[in-house]
Amino acid sequence: MATYPIVNKETGEKQVIEMSVHDITEWYKNHPEWQRDWSEGCASGVELGEWMDTLVKKKPGWNEVLNRASKAP
Q1: Confidence (pTM)
Q2: Exposed, middle or buried by CB within 10 Å (0-12, 13-18, 19+), for 6?
Q3: I need a labelling partner for 43 at 20 to 30 A (CA). Which of 3, 18, 22, 32 fits?
């Protein structure tokens, strides 16, 4: 299930709906007064931040592994 921030064209009311990707097009056809609220951004599967920092914070032993790898020829 994906979440979609939407806004009512007439009233400006904002909501977030949760629906499958396949059903959202039909929902928009049945509810023409609502549209996607792109000011809220779009979904992303990317984590923010440096991957090494994230890895070391979750598993501190990786710091040693990364240090050894950086010294390898």
Answers
A1: 0.53
A2: buried
A3: 32
